[in-house]
Fold this protein.
Amino acid sequence: MFASHENRHQDVLRAIVSSETSFDDAVRDGIPEIAHDHPELEFKTFEAVAFQGVIRDDNVKVFQVVIDIAGFHKHSHDH
């Protein structure tokens, strides 16, 4: 965890990101999308915690990665 004396804390989001191409693409495309949906967070690290997917007609159709993304959340008030 990143230490700080400012009025902020670190949050961890768990998300499932997906791609029809690869696990790598799921992460690379998914993190910016999550960051866009959470502008209050300044993302710093991520960890892939699980890999999964969808099989149809004996072929992999969807690659999914469960990720934990850590980011700072800054407040303008004290807790």
